[in-house]
Design a protein that fits this description.
Arc Repressor Mutant, subunit A; sigma factor; four-stranded mixed beta sheet; about 475 residues; transcription; alpha+beta
């Protein structure tokens, strides 16, 4: 075999460090981008963040326009001017951060949120006020530790009895704890605030709340009878329920109305309701009958090259310090360019999505059009993977609410006219039909499919069932209300 040297020309694609950085920044959320920018600011001395630029510029302009004005001279003048110079500017003491929807009223607000108390802590405070023995207090602590966030007891009483016995044996207590002792303590806990906490199921929770009510409450006894046969109530077997309870249909209806006033999950009042709010990356507003798309200025970082360090760089100097400044300046420029490209790409994709989903912005989810990543990628001349990165963990604020960009992409179903309908729009139509149905005669999946076909959407019964289950809507037999 003969060895030889040859020249070959070929095209190849290589990911430079700058391109890798741009791709990585493209898929970051606004919070992750803020963290990445802070890391770069801490590590690169030539990169700096622009802050309070407008205020400093305004102050410098004022100093240039009136460098020789003196307050004493103005006050001693024969005629006082309408506008007197002052020793401070309003912008010095009142600053605000611009937002996408207007200006904030105050720069800083006092944090007046109240401390959150857990359900367990609330119950323990009440147990300490009861005249319990040491053993009963230990049993109460074991029961309270086993209560979930909804207020239900999630373990069996035998497990609690075994746990209490094990703890007593660890301190050399020889007497045995009876099951009835645990049950008595549980009954006391169920009557603490909130009423019904520590119940083992929904029926017991509602029954405890009914027993606490005064006997003068109308339909109280009828509701207690009803809960004694709650299996028939859940299965909606009205004839058997009337026969077993001895109540007529009107009494059953009033008893059910009383049950609806009770709390099915007493522990939810102590749930930490502090929400994690998402910051929109894109804001869509309608002005002069035209939908405008803009980037949220609150999440747009304002970066620049530090002029002081940049002026220290010398062209012909090859020293280590000068080379360090050169490298950091190049990295800072590439980082700023990558951030700018990220925002341009995001705005381009978001604008294209709004062009496709105008009907959604006008009438809601029923106007959603079928859309896939390929459609957007072809229009903005990007690869599908790039569009996927742009739309991941990015949010758009619209008059209809806050949505992730991925929400506007959906599969399609054929229509009777030969067109296409979005699966999101079909789900919205199914939800609307069920909301308007007669609860005594709820629509079956087949009936919904017929109504959708009359509206021009050709879907099978199984498709309707799949969409209904994705909306967490029960079947027609479970939605039926007889009383």
């Amino acid at each position: 075999m003969k060895l030889s040297v040859g020249l070959k020309i070929a095209n190849s694609l290589s990911l430079t460090p700058q391109l890798q950085q741009a791709i990585r920044l493209l898929q970051l959320s606004s919070l992750e981008l803020e963290q990445e920018i802070q890391v770069q600011l801490d590590s690169n001395p030539l990169l700096e963040k622009i802050e309070d630029q407008d205020t400093s510029e305004e102050l410098s302009i004022l100093e240039i326009e009136s460098p020789d004005k003196d307050l004493t001279t103005e006050l001693n003048a024969d005629h006082l001017p309408d506008d007197l110079p002052v020793d401070t500017d309003w912008d010095d003491v009142y600053t605000h951060q611009p937002t996408s929807l207007g200006s904030a009223e105050f720069e800083e607000r006092e944090d007046n949120r109240q401390g959150h108390q857990s359900l367990q802590a609330h119950l323990l405070e009440q147990v300490n006020l009861l005249n319990f023995s040491k053993i009963d207090q230990l049993i109460a602590h074991c029961i309270i530790d086993s209560i979930d966030d909804k207020g239900f007891l999630e373990v069996d009483l035998t497990e609690i009895t075994a746990s209490v016995q094990h703890l007593l044996q660890s301190i050399s207590y020889e007497d045995e704890v009876e099951h009835d002792e645990v049950l008595v303590v549980l009954k006391h806990i169920q009557r603490l605030d909130p009423i019904g906490v520590g119940s083992r199921n929904l029926a017991e929770c509602l029954l405890v709340q009914l027993e606490i009510l005064s006997e003068d409450v109308p339909c109280r006894n009828d509701a207690i009878k009803l809960m004694q046969h709650y299996e028939l109530l859940i299965s909606n077997e009205l004839p058997k329920l009337i026969k077993q309870t001895g109540l007529n249909q009107d009494q059953l209806r009033k008893a059910v109305d009383l049950l609806k006033t009770l709390k099915p999950h007493p522990g939810l009042d102590f749930e930490d309701k502090e929400s994690n709010y998402q910051i929109p990356d894109v804001v869509v507003m309608k002005k002069n009958d035209c939908w405008q798309v803009m980037l949220n200025p609150d999440v747009m970082p304002k970066l620049r090259i530090n002029s002081f360090y940049a002026n220290m760089i010398k062209r012909a100097d090859q020293s280590e310090d000068n080379q360090y400044l050169r490298n950091n300046m190049l990295e800072a420029k590439n980082f700023i360019k990558s951030i700018d490209e990220r925002h341009k790409t995001l705005l381009k994709v978001a604008t294209c999505i709004v062009e496709h989903q105008r009907m959604f912005l006008e009438i809601g989810a029923e106007g959603m059009k079928p859309l896939v990543l390929r459609d957007i990628a072809e229009e903005v001349e990007l690869h599908e993977s790039t569009v996927s990165r742009v739309t991941t963990n990015k949010y758009m604020l619209t008059p209809r609410g806050l949505f992730e960009l991925k929400y506007f992409f959906s599969s399609h179903v054929g229509t009777t006219s030969g067109g296409e309908a979005s699966s999101t729009a079909i789900r919205a139509k199914i939800k609307k039909l069920i909301a308007e149905e007669n609860t005594r005669k709820p629509l079956s999946d087949n009936a919904i499919a017929v109504l959708l076909k009359a509206d021009g959407i050709d879907v099978a019964r199984r498709t309707v069932a799949k969409y209904r289950e994705s909306l967490h809507i029960a079947s027609s037999s479970e939605r039926k209300v007889l009383i």
